[in-house]
Amino acid sequence: MATLPTYRIDPFDLRLFAAIVEHGSITAGARHIHLSLAAASTRLQQLEHAIGATLLLRARSGVRTTDAGRTLLLHAGRLQRGMEALHADMAAHAHGVRSTVRVLCNTAAMTEHLPPLLARFLVEHPDIDVDLRELGSQDVLMSMRQEQADIGIVADHVSTEALDTRFFREDRLVAVMPKPRGRASRQALPFADLLDKPFVGLPVESGISRLLHDQALQHGRGLHYRVRVRGLDAVMQLVGEGVGVAVVPQATALRLASERLVARPLSDAWAARQLLMCSALDTPLGAGAAALHGFLARGASPAPASFKQGR
To answer: Hey, what domains does the chain have and what are their CATH numbers?
Structure first.
C-alpha cells in the first residue's frame, strides 16, 4: 500500500504558486515574492510531490496550469482571502479590546424582533460587533451544537435539548390574504382552509416554508406557490396585489398592515409559537456574547406560565 507523503502544504508555497501563475513564469513569480529561482523551483517540486499531481506545464513561453493546478489555484485564493480576513480581525483586536458575537436566528427574529434590540445594543457597546445570520430553526440548533454560534433564536417546534433555553418572544402566525369586496371576516380559521388557495411564500429552505410544508403534509396535501421571494415585506406586497395568500408572523402583519390586506388568526395550535433564545449549556459565553445575551434577556417579553426553562 502506498504511503502518503509527509510533506505538508505550506501557505507560503500556495502564495508562491499563485504568484507564478499570475506572472507567467517561475522566475517572475519568485522575484515577485523575493525568493531565489532555485528555492522557488525546490518548493514547487515539493508542492507537486505533496499533492501527487503535476500543477504546471513548463514551456519556453512560460507556464500554464493543469487541471490540478487550476483546482489548487482556486483553493489558494480562498485561503489567501481567509488569511487576509484573519489578519484584519486580529488587527481590530490589536487596536483595542473588541469582540464579535455570532448570532443565528430564524426568519421572524431576523425580520421583526432583533433589529431594534440590536440597534440599541450596538450603539451602547461600540467595542462589540455582531455577526448575524438567518437560518431555519433546525439549522440554527445544528450550528449551535457544533459550537458555530454564541446565541441562537429558534421557534419552539424544534428540540432544544442540551442547550440553555430561555423564552424570548411570542410569535403567532397569521394568514394574510387580499381584502375581498364587502365586509372581510377577521375570525380565526384553520390552516386546512387555505390549502386550495395559491400561496406567496419565502424560499423553500426558510423555517416558515418548512413548517407550512410539514403541516400541509399532515392533511395529505401540498402547497401551490405562485411565487417565492426573499423577504416578508415582498410577501406582503404581493399578497396585497392579489397574487395569493400567505402565512406570516403576526408582527409582520401588524407592521405592514394595508387596506388591501386582511389578516386572520390561524386556529391551529402550532400557529401559536414561542421564540426561544439558546446558548451553550456547559461552555461559558465570552464577555461580548454574555453582554448581548443579558441585553436580549432583559429585552425579552415575560415568559408565559407554561414555559419551562430548558437546560
So the answer is: 11-94 (1.10.10.10), 100-167+275-299 (3.40.190.10), 170-272 (3.40.190.10)
Cα distances (angstroms) measured from residue 135 to each of 111, 154, 247: 12, 9, 18
- Of 41 and 304, which is predicted with more confidence? 41
| Residue-level length of the chain | 311
3-state secondary structure 62-107: EEEECHHHHHHHHHHHHHHHHHHHHHHHHHHHHCCCCEEEEEEECH
Nearest one of 230, 297, 36, 248 to 239, comparing CA atoms: 248
Cell 421572524, residue located: 108
Q: Which three cell numbers stand for residue 221?
A: 396535501
Amino acid identity, residue 184?
A
Q: What is residue 308's three-state secondary structure?
A: coil
CA distance 299 to 142: 25
Nearest to 174 by CA among 155, 157, 192, 188: 188
- Cα-based distances in Å from 79 to 8, 54, 85, 291, 294: 15, 20, 10, 32, 36
pLDDT tens digits for range 170-209: 999 999 999 987 777 889 999 999 999 999 999 998 889 9
The cell numbers describing 297, all together, are 434577556
Look at strands 128-134 and 99-105 and give their pairing.
Answer: parallel
- Residues contacting 49, CB < 8 A, separation 6+: 5, 7
**Beta-carbon contacts of residue 56 (< 8 Å; ≥ 6 apart):** 20, 21, 26, 44, 63, 64, 65, 66, 69
* C-alpha–C-alpha distance, residues 69 and 28, integer Å: 18
**Whole-structure pTM value:** 0.66
